């Protein structure tokens, strides 16, 4: 597969890392030789210095033969224009990253699709979705719903009061048990567990279960004392905050802190009565106390500064807030935030890269996401008639090391998978993998 990436910035670099694992033919275009030198040194790909809106540059990159053309420069106009040009030159599929909410409207997306921009990625929408998913349950680090909630993945930090520590998983996750452990993050290492592995205190464990058993999961992991989220404080009034608040459930009471007075006036108009906008610094402990942080279950830090967001979340935790969410765009800071026990880490660049990564896979791969904290991929694959995955029970399939099947959806009903499960054509199968080529997995389906 020939893939062209315009923009050797954070998203382009993260995409290159994801795609280079699949040994695709990748060309990165950028006007800055230093950025290209760095990305070319780190990954197995070609680089081309030039403007992505230059016909000469696009022809030199052999855009006419591109299966996927991805524009992720910081300038949305550049991204739109070079995708239109790439389409005209013969690229099969084009993707453009944008930073304006207008592009997320269905009518606008349809307009640009007619011009040759097949897919528009708006990271703020994707980040807002992950933020709200993280607020659904205060005791969960990450929640991921499969097929409208037929299956649910829960990422949970385990503490001393967890009932299922230090026991082989083969004794815990049998065919009749209502959950499976599909991935474990421990001391910086990701484990796709087998039957002899055990859960340890302070593990970040990823469970697959069904919606009726969520209360049971909460009990066995020792999180029943966590209060449900009703009151939320948000720091920073940028585009991500606006999108997240606009799509938050109605039952949440939201207070938004923004330092800039002019921005506060805009936010009051945009958000209306749904949100109390406060002109102030959410790092001010006395202000937080006055505004009721002791009665707040979730604190969401969405400024453009990673250090500010991390420190604000640490302060909120010290003041008794159980659930904290921080936007951290620097990958190095993301791992640091995890070690400091910041709750949910949101990285818009990684989220956007994961969504684009999905586009290079087959149409029957319904959803792929990158679990940044676990350094693992999780995806929904549809099993085709005659596919290898349908020929034998799971235990006899010879799954690659680093891959596990978390569950499946059959006729709209979520089911967990055991070694004796036989996957049928048409089943939606949830796959977890770490250091495994996703294209290799795709071939099994």
Would you spell out the secondary-structure blueprint of this structure?
Blueprint: E1 2-6, H1 10-20, E2 25-30, H2 33-42, E3 46-49, H3 55-60, E4 68-71, H4 76-89, E5 94-97, H5 106-115, E6 119-121, H6 123-135, E7 142-146, E8 151-157, H7 169-172, E9 179-186, E10 189-191, E11 204-209, H8 214-220, E12 231-235, H9 239-246, E13 253-258, H10 261-271, E14 275-279, H11 285-290, E15 298-301, H12 306-318, E16 323-327, H13 331-339, E17 344-346, H14 348-359, E18 365-371, E19 376-382, E20 403-410, E21 413-416, E22 428-433, H15 438-444
Domain RCK C-terminal: 141-223, 366-445
InterPro entries: K_uptake_TrkA, NAD(P)-bd_dom_sf, RCK_C, RCK_C_sf, RCK_N, Trk_Ktr_HKT_K-transport
Domain RCK N-terminal: 1-121, 229-346
Overview of the molecule:
It holds the Pfam family TrkA_N. InterPro entries: K_uptake_TrkA, NAD(P)-bd_dom_sf, RCK_C, RCK_C_sf, RCK_N, Trk_Ktr_HKT_K-transport. This is Trk system potassium uptake protein TrkA. This protein is an alpha/beta fold. It folds into 4 domains: 120 residues, Rossmann fold; 88 residues, Alpha-Beta Plaits; 93 residues, Rossmann fold (3-Layer(aba) Sandwich); 82 residues, 2-Layer Sandwich (Alpha-Beta Plaits), CATH 3.30.70. It has 15 helices and 22 strands. The strands form 4 sheets. The chain has a 6-stranded parallel sheet, sandwiched between helices. It has a 6-stranded parallel sheet with strand order 14-13-12-15-16-17, sandwiched between helices. Strands 7-8-11-9-10 form a 5-stranded antiparallel sheet. Helix 13 links the parallel strand 16 and strand 17. Helix 1 crosses helix 14. The protein is globular, with a radius of gyration of 22 Å. The model has no long low-confidence stretch (mean pLDDT 88).
């Amino acid at each position: 597969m020939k893939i062209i990436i315009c923009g050797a910035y954070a998203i382009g670099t993260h995409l290159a890392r994801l795609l280079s694992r699949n040994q695709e033919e990748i060309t990165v275009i950028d006007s800055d030789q230093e950025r290209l030198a760095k990305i070319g040194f780190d990954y197995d790909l070609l680089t081309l210095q030039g403007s992505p809106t230059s016909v000469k540059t696009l022809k030199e990159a052999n855009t006419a033969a591109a299966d996927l053309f991805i524009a992720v420069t910081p300038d949305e106009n550049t991204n739109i224009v070079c995708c239109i040009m790439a389409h005209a030159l013969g690229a099969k599929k084009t993707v453009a990253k944008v930073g304006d909410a207008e592009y997320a409207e269905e009518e606008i997306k349809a307009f640009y699709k007619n011009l040759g921009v097949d897919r528009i990625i708006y990271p703020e929408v994707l980040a807002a979705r992950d933020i709200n998913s993280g607020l659904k349950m205060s005791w969960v680090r990450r929640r991921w719903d499969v097929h409208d909630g037929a299956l649910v993945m829960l990422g949970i930090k385990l503490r001393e009061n967890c009932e299922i520590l230090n026991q082989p998983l083969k004794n815990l996750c049998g065919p009749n048990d209502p959950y499976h452990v599909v991935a474990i993050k421990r001391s910086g290492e990701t484990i796709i567990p087998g039957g002899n592995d055990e859960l340890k205190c302070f593990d970040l464990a990823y469970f697959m279960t069904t919606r009726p058993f969520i209360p049971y999961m909460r009990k066995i992991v020792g999180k029943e004392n966590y209060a449900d989220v009703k009151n939320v404080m948000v720091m920073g009034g940028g585009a991500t905050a606006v999108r997240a608040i606009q799509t938050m459930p109605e039952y949440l009471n939201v207070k938004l802190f923004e330092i800039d007075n002019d921005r506060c006036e805009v936010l009051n108009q945009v958000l209306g009565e749904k949100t109390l906008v406060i002109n102030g610094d959410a790092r001010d402990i006395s202000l937080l106390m006055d505004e009721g942080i002791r009665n707040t279950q979730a604190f969401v830090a969405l400024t453009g500064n990673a250090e500010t967001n991390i420190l604000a979340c640490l302060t909120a935790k010290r003041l008794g807030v159980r659930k904290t969410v921080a936007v951290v765009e620097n990958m190095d800071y993301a791992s640091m935030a995890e070690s400091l026990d910041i709750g949910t880490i949101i990285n818009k660049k990684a989220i956007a890269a994961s969504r684009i990564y999905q586009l290079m896979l087959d149409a029957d791969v319904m959803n792929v996401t990158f679990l940044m904290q676990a350094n693992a991929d999780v995806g929904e694959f549809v099993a085709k008639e005659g596919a290898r995955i349908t020929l034998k029970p799971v235990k006899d399939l010879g799954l690659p090391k680093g891959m596990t099947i978390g569950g499946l959806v059959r006729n709209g009903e979520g089911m967990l998978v055991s070694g004796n499960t036989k996957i049928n054509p048409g089943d939606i199968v949830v796959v977890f993998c770490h250091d495994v080529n996703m294209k290799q997995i795709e071939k099994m389906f």
